[in-house]
Design goal:
Elements: H1 18-23, H2 26-37, H3 41-46, H4 49-57, H5 65-71, H6 75-90, H7 93-103, H8 108-126, E1 130-133, E2 145-149, E3 152-161, H9 164-181, E4 187-193, H10 202-215, E5 225-229, E6 237-244, E7 252-253, E8 257-258, H11 266-277, E9 286-292, H12 299-307, E10 310-314, E11 317-322, E12 336-347, E13 350-359, E14 377-384, E15 390-395
Parallel strand pairs: 3-9, 4-7, 4-8, 9-12, 13-14
Antiparallel strand pairs: 1-2, 2-3, 4-6, 5-6, 10-11, 12-13, 14-15
């Protein structure tokens, strides 16, 4: 008599967004994370099983950037880890050890800053430089890294222009989506968050929405319909009931906005540049690396920030934020040799990068444009005109 033994195969559902992360079983998340990182030998040592367990246990942290990259079904995330692995492979062993600790900080702000540091450290390693991380400065502070080759020694400081309000808004929407997905409702709704809305108000808003939809379930016929919270006093949110799905289908949030207006952090741009300059060595050439995160940045934004006359567009009205404070003025900030502005954008399955190098008009130590020469780099030199104004002249390399 012959028999057959059937093995039950557990199929793990693909994870698509933050809501599915928070609802997923931690064991399944851990399996997905191990599978993704298993193909990268260097990263596998940094993200060992013990650490990955800590990451998935924090699945309800809406700012767990690393967990999203580890488990969401995305070829772009896989390519992202490929790039990190290759950059770590280029670096010296001591650099990899020091970057390992930084890579284990999973919040978006610190994680993205570390990735930028790794990219530039790897780039200058390929150019024949030796890299020293966090070299001490005479004032007792530390720069992010130093690159030296022969007699040339360059200090680098990385500053991410991080729009905290914009990022907070994203986390609010993630939490609203997550909490609403757990309600037993078949309504499709949208939110319009007011300027006074704070993230800690999400739980009370969701409880209110649950009560409101339940108490009015039978009278919702014509759509859309709207109501606000709180019902008395200054509203912090408007809830738009867009439609009702057939019985048995889950409701969801669609088309949320922030009616209060995202201020953005362009005022932070100049402050970050100025503070970054103070973290450069006074006796060696210094380069400030500026990377924006989460903002649609135009080339003239960084140029205006460097030369003054930074204009902000708030609520459709341009406003002069600051005038005449020229960071690259002839006799100021001379420890700064150049500013590199970086943009990284996801296009299809990979990230594209654009780098703009702005040389100081009269630095203490000039750096040759050849040092920064790459395929995706454009370089500029501030040049005075006869009328005293300054414009940017593109450098051909």
């Amino acid at each position: 008599m012959s028999g057959s033994v059937s093995k039950e195969v557990s199929v793990i559902k693909a994870i698509r967004d933050i809501t599915e992360i928070t609802n997923a079983d931690t064991k399944e998340l851990l399996t997905l994370a191990k599978q993704r990182i298993g193909n990268f030998p260097i990263l596998k040592k940094i993200y060992d099983d013990t650490f990955l367990h800590r990451v998935v246990q924090s699945k309800k942290d809406y700012d767990n950037r690393l967990l999203s990259l580890l488990v969401i079904d995305s070829n772009a995330a896989i390519n992202f880890f490929h790039e990190i692995e290759e950059n770590l492979r280029i670096l010296q062993t001591e650099c990899v050890k020091e970057f390992s600790m930084k890579l284990q900080r999973w919040d978006t702000r610190h994680f993205e800053s570390t990735i930028t540091e790794i990219e530039f450290a790897a780039d200058f390693t390929k150019k024949g430089f030796q890299i020293e991380l966090e070299p001490p400065l005479p004032n007792g502070r530390k720069a992010d890294f130093c690159a030296h080759k022969g007699s040339l020694k360059i200090f680098f400081e990385v500053k991410n222009i991080f729009p905290q309000e914009y990022h907070e808004y994203d986390m609010i929407l993630d939490e609203l989506n997550d909490r609403y997905s757990k309600l037993d409702t078949n309504f499709v709704i949208g939110f319009d968050l007011k300027k006074s809305f704070h993230r800690n108000q999400v739980p009370e808003v969701i409880k209110y929405v649950k009560r409101k939809l339940k108490s009015n379930e039978r009278i919702y016929n014509g759509f859309p319909q709207s109501f606000v919270y709180p019902e008395k006093g200054e509203p912090i949110i408007e809830i738009n009931v867009r439609k009702r799905l057939p019985k048995g289908e889950k409701g969801y949030i669609s088309g949320s906005t922030f009616g209060g207006g995202i201020k953005g952090d362009w005022s932070d741009l100049r402050n970050k540049i100025s503070s970054g300059i103070s973290q450069l060595h006074p006796n060696y050439p210094g380069v400030l690396i500026v990377q924006s995160y989460g903002l649609s940045t135009l080339q003239h934004d960084i140029e205006n920030a460097l030369l003054g006359d930074l204009k902000l567009n708030r609520f459709g009205k341009p406003r002069l934020f600051r005038s005449g404070d020229n960071i690259l003025v002839k006799d100021r900030n001379r420890r700064l040799s150049a500013v590199i502005y970086c943009e990284k954008r996801l296009q299809g399955l990979a990230y594209t990068r654009k780098r703009l190098v702005y040389h100081h008009l009269n630095p203490k130590t000039k750096l040759s444009p050849e040092i920064f020469k790459e395929e995706n780099v454009t370089q500029f030199l501030p040049t005075k005109l006869d009328n005293g104004m300054i414009h940017w002249k593109k450098i051909d390399t």
